Amino acid sequence: MAGEGRVLVVDDDETVRDVVRRYLEAGGFTVEMAGDGEECLRRFAVQRPDLVVLDVMMPGLNGLEVCRRLRQTSQVPVVLLTALGEEENRIAGLQLGADDYVTKPFSPRELALRVASVLRRARMPHQAMPTELTDGDLRLQLGARQATLDGAELSLTAREFDLLAFFIGNPGVAFSRSDLLERVWGWDFGDQSTVTVHVRRLREKIERDPAKPVRIATVWGVGYRYDAVTNHDRT
């Protein structure tokens, strides 16, 4: 693993912070640390890291609230640390805009690899795709990693942008959740609810009625399919 960038590690457990710091620094990252949510927000405002590793269960300002506040002003990639069995917190974090999560107890090496993967995808457009993708009033500029709908810019996390770009680039094809985990997230394994949450968030941002999606269709027993608006009437 080779990394490059500034990572802010936030955890109230000093031992966890130190272990994560050592693995990330060994991977080439510059690491800053914070022991609670308030310190995280203060450091973030000054240092503007490239990625935040954020523990969910902290006293005072917990990780979910910190993630919500970060998303009010920034699309910085966020990787959550959650305890095994905290499925509701993981889903809530993804709904708030977190890009990935690792469950405790975790492998520090796996976390470092996840950080490198999230940063790489946040920085680089898909090389096999054109510089721009359009579907009716939806437009993605891959080089700038900017998405607009009806001319208004969409606020997308790195994973949401990647997933939407993949969908638009592969219209009319049904993909399972495991397919999407592998081809968008780059995971050979993982919790498939991650995909479900990201699809839900995308629908809230690009569909006129998220409860009756037109673009991102559910294919029962399979997964999801993207239907280009040029192939049907949205009125």
TrEMBL record:
InterPro entries cross-referenced by the UniProt entry: CheY-like_superfamily (IPR011006), OmpR/PhoB-type_DNA-bd (IPR001867), Sig_transdc_resp-reg_receiver (IPR001789), WalR-like (IPR039420), WH-like_DNA-bd_sf (IPR036388)
OmpR/PhoB-type domain ranges (all copies): 130-228
List of residues that carry 4-aspartylphosphate: 55
Residues of the Response regulatory domain: 6-119
Residues annotated to bind DNA: 130-228
Keywords, alphabetical: DNA-binding, Phosphoprotein, Transcription, Transcription regulation
Record CDD domains: REC_OmpR, trans_reg_C
Name the record gives this protein: Response regulator transcription factor
Organism: Amycolatopsis acididurans
